[in-house]
Amino acid sequence: MTTSRPRRPGMWTIRGPLSRRLYWLFAAFGLLAPLGLWWFMASGSDVDKVFLPGPLDVFNRLVTWYVEDDLLADMGISIYRVTTGFLISAVIALPLALLIGTFRPVQAVLEPLTDFIRYMPAVAFIPLVMLWVGIEESSKIAIIFIGTFFQMVLMMAEDVRRVPLAQIEAAQTMGANRSETINLVIFQAAKPAIMDTLRVTMGWAWTYLVVAELVAASSGLGYSILKAQRFLQTDKIFVGIILIGLIGLVMDQLFRLAHRKAFPWLYLRS
User: How much is the mean pLDDT over the chain?
Assistant: First the structure.
């Protein structure tokens, strides 16, 4: 009597498997299909290039920006502003999130205030930032900090709260003191989720770049986009937006790679 082998789940089943080759084929389609649609829409004879420049026009503007207008310097200063504001947010947010997620009195004091401030638009703080910090580089970094810090604190605190109470009680039963429980149990268990939160909030930091470079900037991708808007250089606006997206995508993939390297057991297939 023969026994039939169980059928392998197909790729269209819920959370079904997908080979690496098929994954990259789908990813390529997802990237190239919008590009083809953009080219098709822009190629119409009745489409004004001021409103919708084609991919070739945008590429030519990219070359011009690189050759004549120091594109690399604009990219460099924007990356510096975003990463600096993000890192300052992370350094301050992490210990606060551990305290909020661990101790209810700290949660009661800080969480409502943080929740209140996070709904305030970062752009509304520009006059205060200019008054308190000035118009130098610190003001751009401060806007990115304001835009990411309060969200980051709350998301990290939620990651800490998700650590199972059973792990904490087991550590206490084995004689761990409060400091050891926080550092060796709670923080270690929450680290994978915290790193994912950092990856997400890095994306938010890039969305605040244009807002940050409203503050008396004379360089940067966001500044160049705003300047191009005044002169109706739509192709340059497209270049700036695409470059911000590409830089953000590279950073996102670096975070994913670091996550895989730091927590390889999470990616083991059963």
Answer: 88
Question: Which helix (H) or strand (E) is 172 found in, with range?
Answer: helix 165-173
Q: pTM of the full predicted structure?
A: 0.86
Domain boundaries 55-267, CATH class: mainly alpha
Q: Which sequence spans correspond to the domains of the chain?
A: 55-267
- Dihedral of alpha carbons 55, 60, 66, 68, sign: negative
Residue 216, sorted as left (phi over 0), alpha (psi -120 to 50) or beta, turns out to be left
Strand locations in 97-154 (E) = none
For the four alpha carbons of 259, 107, 117 and 89, in that order, the dihedral sign comes to: negative
Beta strands (DSSP E) in 42-85 are none
What single letter denotes the amino acid at residue 38? W
Beta strand residue intervals within the chain, DSSP E: none
Rg (CA), the chain: 24
* Residue 189 clears pLDDT 70, i.e. is over it: yes
Dump pLDDT digits (tens) for 89-99.
Answer: 999 999 999 99
Read off the pLDDT of residues 190-235 as tens digits, 9 standing for 90 and up.
999 999 999 999 988 998 888 888 777 788 898 899 888 888 889 9
Close Cβ partners of 92 (under 8 Å, ≥ 6 residues apart): 149
Q: What is the distance between the alpha carbons of residues 148 and 125, in angstroms, rounded to a whole number?
A: 13
Burial of 124 (0-12, 13-18, 19+ CB in 10 A): exposed
